[in-house]
Design a protein that fits this description.
The protein is an alpha/beta fold. It has one domain: TIM Barrel, CATH 3.20.20.30. It is built from 16 helices and 11 strands. The strands form 2 sheets. Strands 1-2-3-4-7-8-9-11 form an 8-stranded parallel barrel, surrounded by 8 helices. The chain has a two-stranded antiparallel sheet with strand order 5-6. Helix 7 packs parallel to helix 15. It is globular, with a radius of gyration of 20 Å. The termini are close together.
């Protein structure tokens, strides 16, 4: 059966109460999980989910994702084990690289991303076994640490946020799952699943062991055009980021030249030249409406679920047919309505 998670409120318009209330609502509606995104200028993931753990009982709690660069491997392992204890074994830990520009803005060197992801995952799992542990890698160095706090079930599921082929294959090799970011169209999902499977087989694993989690922007509505227009600025930002759009358009049949007007509207080159992250700064300089004007309907149609329930279920099926096993729903609609419409 398909699993369903709900993305909790995020960003400057979220509040502590809205985050916790939404998690309670998701649990009552029957969602399998509730997820937070950790950005390094916004809501911190472990603190947020620590509170959510106290007001929920059953629902799994996911981080999608934190970058290993902001915490040492022992600290990240103990942070995860601590939260897992407080939520009684319900944590899913997502790891992701972030971006070089974002890391630069918070004073962190973007270094050896593949070694970092692999070694953090390995080291944390060793730490979660308990007892004295040492590790000497390219990035992670631990000398005779004995952790006090261990996960409830002996380990915490680790999922990796990935976009490109190398990170997707690494997820297939070492992770319990992969998280595909919002606005990933089914054609890209299918391509990504192939790379995850390749990595899994290379490591001697059954690809079916790796959960394929896809974040899907969802609007259940009769006013389809209004919903598409609402999503266009955010899809534009996801696709406008340098290098990403071309990957998302893999096997789509869409000419990548469609991305150039989006990037111009977002001032991508200008913002990057100043050492800034466009995701943070584009909408401080341009209006969402000006970007929406150059985003074609076809991109939103291919990469989201928008429409009344019957159409929404058919659109969601395309993601499932492409290989998604777990859907993380990104939507402001009531949780019960969403689950009824999609399942």
């Amino acid at each position: 059966m398909t699993k369903f998670g709900l993305l909790l409120p995020l960003g400057g318009f979220a509040t502590a109460q809205s985050i916790s209330n939404r998690a309670v609502e998701a649990e009552a509606a029957g969602f399998d999980s509730a997820w937070v995104i950790e950005d390094y200028y916004s809501w911190e993931a472990f603190g947020s989910l620590g509170y959510v753990a106290a007001v929920t009982q059953r629902i799994q709690l996911g981080i999608s994702v934190t970058t290993p660069y902001v915490r040492s491997a022992p600290l990240l392992a103990s942070s995860a084990a601590t939260l897992d204890q407080f939520c009684n074994g319900r944590l899913i830990l997502g790891l992701g690289r972030s971006s070089g520009t974002m890391l630069g803005q918070i004073g962190i060197e973007d270094r050896k991303p593949f070694a970092t992801m692999r070694e953090y995952t390995e080291a944390m799992r060793l730490l979660w076994r308990g007892g004295e542990m040492s590790y000497d890698g390219k990035v992670v160095h631990i000398d005779r640490i004995v952790p006090d706090v261990l996960p409830v079930n002996g380990s915490v599921p680790v999922v990796i946020g990935a976009i490109g082929p190398q990170m997707l294959e690494l997820a297939g090799e070492i992770a319990d799952g992969v998280v595909l970011t919002g606005f990933s169209p089914p054609a890209y999902v299918q391509w990504a699943v192939g790379h995850v499977a390749e990595g899994a087989r290379r490591a001697g694993r059954d690809p079916a062991e790796v959960e394929i989690i896809v974040m899907v922007a969802t609007r259940i509505t009769e006013d389809v055009q209004a919903a598409r227009d609402e999503l266009k600025p955010w899809l534009g930002l996801a696709y406008g980021m340098t290098g990403r759009g071309e990957i998302f358009l893999t096997d789509s049949g869409v000419d990548p030249s469609v991305l150039e007007p989006i990037r111009r509207a977002l001032l991508i080159d200008e913002i990057l030249s100043e050492g800034l992250e466009p995701y943070l700064h584009s909408y401080k300089r341009v209006t969402p409406e000006s970007v929406a004007a150059v985003v074609p309907d076809e991109l939103v149609c291919a990469a989201s679920v928008v429409g009344p329930p019957t159409e929404a279920r058919a659109q969601l099926q395309a993601f499932l047919d492409a290989g998604a096993t777990y859907v993380m729903v990104d939507s402001p609609h009531p949780a019960e309505m969403l689950l009824t419409a999609l399942s």
